[in-house]
């Protein structure tokens, strides 16, 4: 897409709100915020190598990262055009880059289970695909960590991937990208009770790799409409965010526009989920855009939102109660699933079953990934996933290379919500409709790093 294909928007700015060094401010022309767009002649370059991330002065961490920064560069790929991304692996282990939420083929998808190539240490791989749905996607490593909390998504390998629409709806003046991440995982204990879920604890939590107290404020002006693109790039933690004095109008979930944009005071993001929300800036002052709980605030998660001309200490207040519910955004409830014409129904039960040695273990229909046959689908078929969570914690369920449509949560039918990752509550159920429209092996898994590493995955195979 040439620059002149996009109507110029003079007042609009894009901000990847980081620290002083991570600050990227540019007039929006639809071009990459920090990585130039791919072209046949010149692919986007991503280099994987150890890098030192400064969470705050004096608090540094050595992690694997893309292009020496956390998050990696923002990739802005024009909808409908071939993207070329050249990845070089400067680490000492094989790597894969997964384009989360993009409808790519199995080979460039970056999942070893689907047959994607890995990149050997010192090696290079060219990824090429055509993103066809505009929206907030992301990219990340698809390696395993097991109990090594320096690896995979516990480290620094993630970044925004924005598929730029052919036509820019232009409903906002400023764009702010915020990726949540947690640092310094440890695992206190692994109790054997099936109702319990082992949850890593973390010392620090950041937006864009920077603690709030060490980050530049996000500067806004009264009257602006700011589009926030939130990404939860944590390995295992769910987050809830609030901006005192303001409401978020949610316009997209996982990058997919919602049928019925609606105002909320709290946004909850399971691991790997994205939310696009517009905030009308109409309460001058200095505010903390941050978590709803004090512990995460103390761990450093948050950004000061500063109106031009305002001063004083930033204000954070705990919201009354979370109003977060996917059903708010789906419009009218879908017809009962019994009325749908389907080519198959896949009941899938999720349970924590520890290995005999007490090691973490997750199963689908009683079996871990290694013992689980693929689900068979045929191209063009429509299927219903009937998910049941028999464990005491929520799970971000993710399907590679496709979206699915959430139609029911628990006992309640909801308006259709297009997702690539959906959070299933503890002991809850979800029905989701899936159209098999992108042939090739397709991985389904819980995006909680520990759960996917310990068996919570299944293959979907086109036959
Ligand atoms: Cu973000 Cu297997 O995915
Ligand atoms: Cu899980």
TrEMBL record:
<dbReference type="InterPro" id="IPR006311">
    <property type="entry name" value="TAT_signal"/>
</dbReference>
<dbReference type="InterPro" id="IPR008972">
    <property type="entry name" value="Cupredoxin"/>
</dbReference>
<feature type="domain" description="Plastocyanin-like">
    <location>
        <begin position="361"/>
        <end position="458"/>
    </location>
</feature>
<dbReference type="InterPro" id="IPR045087">
    <property type="entry name" value="Cu-oxidase_fam"/>
</dbReference>
<dbReference type="InterPro" id="IPR011707">
    <property type="entry name" value="Cu-oxidase-like_N"/>
</dbReference>
<dbReference type="InterPro" id="IPR001117">
    <property type="entry name" value="Cu-oxidase_2nd"/>
</dbReference>
<dbReference type="Pfam" id="PF07732">
    <property type="entry name" value="Cu-oxidase_3"/>
</dbReference>
<feature type="domain" description="Plastocyanin-like">
    <location>
        <begin position="51"/>
        <end position="167"/>
    </location>
</feature>
<dbReference type="Pfam" id="PF07731">
    <property type="entry name" value="Cu-oxidase_2"/>
</dbReference>
<feature type="domain" description="Plastocyanin-like">
    <location>
        <begin position="205"/>
        <end position="288"/>
    </location>
</feature>
<dbReference type="GO" id="GO:0005507">
    <property type="term" value="F:copper ion binding"/>
</dbReference>
<dbReference type="Pfam" id="PF00394">
    <property type="entry name" value="Cu-oxidase"/>
</dbReference>
<dbReference type="GO" id="GO:0016491">
    <property type="term" value="F:oxidoreductase activity"/>
</dbReference>
<protein>
    <submittedName>
        <fullName>Copper oxidase</fullName>
    </submittedName>
</protein>
<dbReference type="InterPro" id="IPR011706">
    <property type="entry name" value="Cu-oxidase_C"/>
</dbReference>
């Amino acid at each position: 897409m040439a620059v002149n294909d996009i109507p110029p928007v003079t007042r609009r700015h894009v901000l990847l709100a980081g620290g002083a060094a991570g600050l990227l401010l540019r007039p929006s022309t639809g071009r990459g915020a920090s990585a130039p767009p791919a072209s046949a002649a010149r692919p986007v370059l991503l280099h994987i190598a150890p890098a030192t991330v400064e969470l705050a002065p004096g608090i540094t961490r050595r992690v694997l990262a893309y292009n020496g920064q956390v998050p990696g560069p923002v990739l802005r790929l024009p909808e409908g055009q071939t993207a070329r991304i050249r990845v070089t692996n400067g680490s000492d282990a094989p790597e894969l880059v997964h384009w989360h939420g993009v409808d790519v083929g199995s080979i460039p998808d970056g999942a070893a289970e689907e047959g994607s190539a890995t990149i050997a240490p010192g090696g290079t791989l060219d990824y090429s695909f055509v993103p066809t749905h505009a929206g907030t996607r992301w990219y990340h490593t698809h390696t395993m960590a097991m109990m090594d909390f320096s690896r995979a998504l516990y480290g620094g390998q993630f970044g925004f991937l924005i598929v730029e629409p052919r036509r820019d709806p232009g409903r906002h003046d400023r764009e702010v990208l915020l990726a949540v991440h947690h640092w310094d995982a440890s695992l206190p204990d692994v109790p054997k009770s099936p109702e319990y879920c082992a949850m890593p604890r973390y010392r620090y939590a950041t937006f864009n790799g920077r603690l709030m107290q060490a980050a530049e404020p996000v500067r806004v002006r009264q009257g602006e409409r700011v589009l926030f693109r939130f990404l939860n790039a944590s390995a295992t933690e769910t987050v809830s965010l609030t901006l005192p004095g303001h409401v978020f109008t949610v316009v997209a979930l996982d990058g997919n526009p919602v049928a019925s944009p609606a105002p909320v005071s709290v946004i909850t993001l399971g691991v790997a989920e994205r939310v696009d929300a517009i905030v009308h800036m109409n309460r001058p002052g200095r505010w903390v855009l941050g978590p709803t709980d004090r512990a995460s605030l103390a761990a450093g998660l948050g950004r000061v939102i500063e109106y031009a001309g305002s001063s004083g200490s930033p204000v954070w207040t705990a919201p009354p109660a979370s109003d977060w519910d996917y059903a708010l955004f789906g419009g009218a409830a879908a017809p009962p699933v019994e009325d749908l014409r389907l080519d198959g129904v896949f009941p899938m039960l999720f349970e924590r079953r520890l290995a005999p040695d007490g090691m973490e273990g997750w199963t689908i229909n009683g079996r871990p990934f290694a013992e689980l046959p693929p689900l068979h689908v045929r191209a063009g078929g429509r299927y219903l996933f009937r998910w049941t969570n028999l464990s005491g914690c929520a799970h971000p369920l993710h399907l590679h290379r496709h979206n699915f449509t959430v139609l029911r949560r628990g006992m309640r039918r909801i308006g259709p919500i297009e997702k690539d990752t959906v959070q299933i509550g503890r002991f809850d159920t979800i029905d989701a409709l899936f159209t098999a429209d992108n042939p090739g092996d397709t991985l389904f898994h819980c995006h909680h790093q520990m759960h996917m590493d310990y068996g919570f995955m299944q293959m979907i195979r086109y036959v």
